[in-house]
Structures are given as structure tokens and as C-alpha cells.
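Q&A log
Question type: sequence-to-structure
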Amino acid sequence: MVPQLETVCDPFDIRVVSSGGYESVTEKHRVAKELASDRPTEVLHIGDLDPSGLHLFLAFAEDVEAFAYELGSGDVSPNR
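Response status: OK
Response body:
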């Protein structure tokens, strides 16, 4: 799905990133570091709407929010 999304997003200079399932703690920390910068960022999560997909999203959102807070950014909050 990444190539299809890139086709739509590239003209708008929007980056597409795929983790391919449950993200590692290292990946979540990397994302938090990017979100903790001064540049406003919107994250769009595309995943399955089932219990497993919901858990994946909530775990990602909670972990990234906690890492960003620890990195000094108090305004990283997901719209759930």
C-alpha cells in the first residue's frame, strides 16, 4: 500500500512511513523524537478495524506520547 500512498502524497511533500505491524520500542522512540521537534506534524494511522488493530494503534499512540513527553514535548497528544 505504501507505493499507492506515495503516489498521492509525494506532490504535497508528505512522507509515507510503514512499520508493517507492531512497532518496536526503538521505532516508537524514533517517531517520538521526530514528533517532539518544533515542526507541526499530523500522523495518520491506517490499519485494521478489529480488536488487534485497535490494540496496535492504542499501544503505538500511548508509547509515542510517553516518549515524546520524556523528550520534553508536552503537546504531543493523539486524537483517538
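Response note: The chain has a mean pLDDT of 82.
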